[in-house]
Design a protein that fits this description.
Blueprint: E1 2-4, H1 5-11, H2 17-25, E2 29-31, E3 34-35, E4 41-43, E5 49-51, E6 54-55, E7 63-64, E8 66-71, E9 99-101, E10 109-115, H3 118-125, E11 133-139, H4 145-153, E12 167-174, E13 177-184, H5 191-198, E14 203-211, E15 214-215, E16 223-226, H6 229-235, E17 248-250, E18 263-264, H7 265-275
Parallel strand pairs: 10-14
Antiparallel strand pairs: 1-4, 2-3, 2-5, 5-6, 7-18, 8-10, 8-16, 9-10, 11-13, 11-14, 12-13, 14-15, 16-17
Length: 285
């Protein structure tokens, strides 16, 4: 069946559909040896589709990897960097394509999801799905109730756009500043820092604790772990997660002694039936 190329590339793990559109525009994608054009369709099971001269895997051979990483400060949330700066991909010594889901500022830290599952990437990053992200934020001054209320209602940014309402809670004091909990369903570039600046609350530190249902947990900077099958199913809206042992790598920990846990397309198709018996409502959480 023919589909748009950006959808095929995204499903094969080359990033979000928007990112894959840029690959096509830049002339990096070919179909059966011919340069692709934006809007072109192809059959991933029959056509030879390449990105930068490398053949993308056929649908039937595609397998998925899901990794939770603690991105430290001063590391790019990107798969590669032309200037040679350290990226989140550099922190995971595994072969194959892995891309970060969403962005986290260069000077921010916390949870990053790394995967080659383009469909999940699109689901977690597209605004229409409204997946929440939770942050712990240190501001340089102690906020008053008016500042917190304004942040909760939404703030008009310098570009004229108004941010969506957010859940903002005061957690504790820290010297002359304070720790805040911020939960939002959108993620404009450097949004938290810009809001803090406009409200007179300069942001000192940002730690992302959660993406959708996935939590940072006890990971430390540069550490990473594979997601459990329950966590993957929950991110896809198919089951409620069951807490299991999660082996951590990185940050001076030994690497995996066995190949990465991979999820095939067949696994994805059967996951709903596999977990369906234990499915419970998420309302009220």
């Amino acid at each position: 069946m023919e589909e748009r190329l950006q959808k095929i590339l995204s499903r094969a793990g080359f990033g979000s559909r928007r990112a894959c559109e840029e690959f096509i525009i830049e002339g990096r994608v070919k179909v059966n040896g011919q340069a692709a054009t934006l809007g072109q369709k192809a059959d991933s099971s029959k056509d030879a589709i390449t990105l930068d001269g490398k053949l993308i895997p056929k649908d039937e051979t595609q397998s998925y990897v899901y990794i939770a990483l603690y991105k430290p400060r001063n590391v790019l949330s990107a798969a590669e960097d032309q200037d040679g700066r350290t990226t989140v991909r550099d922190l995971i010594p595994l072969p194959g394509h892995l891309y970060p889901v969403g962005r986290l500022d260069y000077d921010s830290e916390g949870l990053i999801l790394m995967t080659n599952d383009g469909e999940l990437t699109n689901k977690l990053t597209h605004p229409r799905y409204g997946h929440q992200k939770e942050y712990r934020v240190l501001v340089a001054r102690r906020p008053d109730e008016e500042q917190l209320s304004t942040w909760r209602r939404g703030v008009v940014l310098e570009d004229g756009d108004k941010t969506a309402p957010a859940d903002v809670k005061f957690l504790s004091t820290s010297g002359k500043g304070a720790w805040l909990q911020i939960i939002m369903g959108e993620g404009k570039k450097r949004q938290i820092r810009e809001i803090g600046k406009l409200l007179g609350l300069p942001v000192v530190k940002i730690i992302r604790l959660r993406i959708g249902t996935l939590r940072l947990g006890n990971l430390k900077p540069r550490q990473w772990r594979y997601l459990t099958e329950d966590e993957v199913a929950e991110l896809k809206g198919k089951a409620r997660p069951v807490e299991t042992h999660k082996k951590v790598y990185g940050a001076n920990r030994s690497g995996p002694s066995a190949p990465a846990k991979r999820f095939s397309k067949a696994d994805d198709r059967t996951s709903s039936s596999r977990y369906g018996k234990n499915k419970r409502s998420n309302s009220g959480r």
